Amino acid sequence: MVGGQLQRDADARHTGSFNYISFGDWSRRTFGWLPMFEFGEFGRWLSLAGTLARVSLLAMLMALTLLVPIVIVIAVFALVLGVTSLACRLVE
Length: 92
Prior knowledge:
mainly alpha
């Protein structure tokens, strides 16, 4: 079962294994010093915006991870070309 709540019968016996168990609704748990905000239907849009922001940030980090080696290869290639042209000028 993914998400939701599991309700057991009082006479039920457990068979198999559990991978992860969480007691209580942790998404709504509040601390004494934190205020609880209710955004109504707008809260669904805020949740969507937060999810899109996290996915966009992940995509940017993945692109940077792929881009950095490419930039290093281009920089080494430019350095080799620069050293080669400098060596040719010194030989002349």
